[in-house]
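PROTEIN FOLDING TASK:
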Amino acid sequence: MRLCILFLLFWITPIQAASADTPIRFGLTAVIITENLRFLDQWSQYLEHKIGRKVEFVQRRSYREVMDLLASGAIDFAWICGYPYVQAKDSDLLQLLTVPIYRGSPHYHSYIIVHESSPYKRFSDLKGKSFAFSDPDSNSGFLYPLALIAKKGETPEHYFRQTFFTFNHAETVQAVAEQVADGGAVDSYIWEYIAVFRPQITEKTRIIKKSPSFGFPPIVNRMGVDAATVAQMRQTLEEMIDDINGKELLDRLKLDGFGSYSDSLFNEIRALEHAVQRTNPRHSVVKTD
């Protein structure tokens, strides 16, 4: 009997150790300004210290790339946009972990922006002009302006003279600031963040339309991540506000904290998607590959 127990311990212990040594992989997209690599190092070190496991941030250019990583199991957590979240929620691919709190609320907006010196004052003034979308799976950078166009019974191909994707909210702001595009759609959080740290760029743009509020881009975990790790990550993120080092990191993100909210927070995005689907079904679920 003793030999059997020793034999089992011999085989079980390495498996447990390998699991503990496996890093937690956390996907990031254009929903966060990630130019400061030192900040990401500090945030990962903070999470590692609190959770007791190595945490690696995995950056990708598009939301679709990050969603594919979640689907394949290559990453465990991700900070994504509300639009891919509502598209994936029904497939049991992921679950809502926590939501950033921005200016006292788990909400943000889409901004329609133009160059500061342009004559455009309303979204309708951009008909026949060039327009920069942020990402095909972005709520603020694509779905919202798409819904505005659909409400008029039009499609982007006919409404605008030219459109293109920047795959980055900051680059959309840059494109409008440099007059590469007449107008663009961006995440309000990103525009306001740039206004603090690079005001010389946003000063060249002007907001002509602000959307209703939407659920802030959430942090999710893929289905299959063990419950203990999910609970640890949620607790660590939501308790950052109570920790000196955590609060400093939040200040640099320009966030008030993270909180647990109902999935219904994203119903406004679902309503937009349904409105677009009714008018133009081929845009209901955007494919980027």
